[in-house]
Amino acid sequence: MRQVPREAVTPATRLVDLPGRGATRVWECPGPRGAQTLMLIHGVACTAELNWGKVLAPLGREFRVVAADLRGHGDGISPGARFRLEDCADDVAALAAALDIRRFIAVGYSMGGMVAQLLCCTAGNVRGSPTEMLAALALPTTAAAIRWNPVLRRAGADVLGMTLLGHVDDPVTARWARAQLSRTTLVTAVSAIQAVCEFSSDGWIGQVDVPTAAVVTTRDRIVPASRQLKLARAIPGASVHQVAAGHGMCINAPQLFARALIEACSGIQPGRALVAPARGGPG
Q1: CA 176 to CA 252: how far, in whole Å?
Q2: Beta strands of the chain (E only): which ranges?
Q3: For each of the chain's 283 residues, which pLDDT tens digit applies?
């Protein structure tokens, strides 16, 4: 595929209205003429800029790239009374329609992988251990307590988000990451984690019939590599691309991240890219 000159790739951002839903912030790179479209879906508490900002330009040299803030995150639309992954999938489909995108490769990171067919650092479910199951049971009570506490209701998700991302060596990057995470409220982040804990694709993941690639972070302490590999192996024909990095690879190792994504996405045949799904299920 012809590459766009390095100096020509400048990500742009704007607010895009999703009819009947609201406006959300979108980051875009036009890519080469005729290039496939990557729809980038970020993780819990993140913004599109935080999760994907450091890889937009390298991806934009080979693909058209679109990354939006999910509902309740950053400049995303309102999450409503309850945060649901199915609603996030519908938002992605609505964004594709608003941008007149007929086909795209959905690239999900962590929580985003649960509403996408191309998966990064994600799993079919997150209730593997008794500790995880107990935490999942406590989340509804935690979310309710935060909603009723006026101080916590206004709190940002920066502390929780930094825990998920892990240690960031560069102080400047750490401050930027914390500022991005604070743009999502703590109550939304906890509600999103609750939705993630309730999610399981075990019953249908083997029926996925679109080309799929999984980027596996082998040093991940949030989603163990074994869980990621189990999911990848359950999808017929999925390719696996392992990277020696942790869950915060998107900001701690962006060069490794970009290379892995380009390799994974380049293996998806143009004629079989994902058709915009109506829901967050196997199709």
Answers
A1: 12
A2: 12-18, 22-29, 37-41, 64-68, 103-109, 118-120, 213-217, 239-243, 274-275
A3: 444 445 567 999 999 999 999 999 999 999 999 999 999 999 999 999 999 999 999 999 999 999 999 999 999 999 888 899 999 999 999 999 999 999 999 999 989 988 774 465 565 555 554 444 434 444 444 445 555 455 545 667 898 889 888 889 899 999 999 999 999 998 899 889 888 888 888 888 888 888 889 999 999 988 889 989 998 999 888 999 999 999 999 999 999 999 999 999 998 865 544 433 333 332 3
Q: Cα separation of 71 and 87, whole Å?
A: 8
Whether residue 69 is contained in a domain is answered as yes
- Count Cβ atoms below 10 Å from residue 16 Cβ, excluding itself: 16
What total number of domains does the chain contain?
1
Q: Is residue 162 part of a domain?
A: no
- Domain of residue 21, residue span: 6-126+200-275
Contacts with 260 (C-beta within 8 Å, 6 or more apart), sequence order: 215, 241, 243
Nearest to 85 by CA among 202, 212, 231, 192: 192
Please report, for the domain that includes residue 99, its CATH number.
3.40.50.1820
Distance separating alpha carbons of residues 153 and 138, to the nearest angstrom:
18
